[in-house]
Amino acid sequence: MFEWAYQLQAIFAALVGVFAVGLGIMKRPPSWWSVGSLAVVEGLLLVQLAVSIALVATGKQAVGDTVEFFGYLITALIVPPAAVAWAILERTRWSTLVLGVAGFTVAVMLVRMWQIWSGIRFSF
């Protein structure tokens, strides 16, 4: 997992979360912008999956548990499509808020994935 890619993904996912929550607070139903921005988050996660598989195939391993890393990655890959499905089925401001929570969830999971991959622990 490359640090610059992790940072790009985490920041973008958090910004998508802020954007979608802002739209939800303004009582806006899901739109192409809110759903599309979460689709970009999903696309970045798919790229991360491909890169991670390639890194492990070439002999690199996570400092932590590699299986746990892929567990987080696969779970993070499930979150955006589930939120989009919710947004499609229920076109209310609440589903826009769910899209925002999904963005925040992916951002937090990316931070945890970075901790597992690099062995760096953040303390607050």
List keywords for this structure.
0% strand, 4 helices, 124 residues, mainly alpha, elongated, single chain
Write the topology of this structure.
Layout: H1 3-25, H2 32-57, H3 66-89, H4 93-118
Helix pairs in contact: 1-2, 1-4, 2-3, 2-4, 3-4
Overall pLDDT: 92
Q: How many β-strand stretches? A: 0
Low-confidence stretches: none
* Number of separate helices: 4
Oligomer: single chain
Q: Mind telling me the C-alpha Rg?
A: 15 Å
End-to-end Cα distance, whole Å, is 23 Å
Helix content: over 70%
The helix-strand sequence is HHHH
Q: Provide the domain count.
A: 1
Q: Could you say which overall geometry the principal axes of the C-alpha atoms support?
A: elongated
Structural class: mainly alpha
Strand content: under 5%
Let me know the largest β-sheet. none
Structural write-up:
The longest helix has 26 residues, at 32-57. Helix 1 (3-25) runs antiparallel to helix 2 and helix 2 packs parallel to helix 4. The protein is elongated and about 45 Å long. The model has no long low-confidence stretch (mean pLDDT 92). The chain contains 4 helices and no strands. It has one domain (3-118). It starts with a helix and ends in a 6-residue tail after the last helix. The protein has 124 residues and is mostly helical.
Describe the structure concisely for a colleague:
The protein is an all-alpha fold.
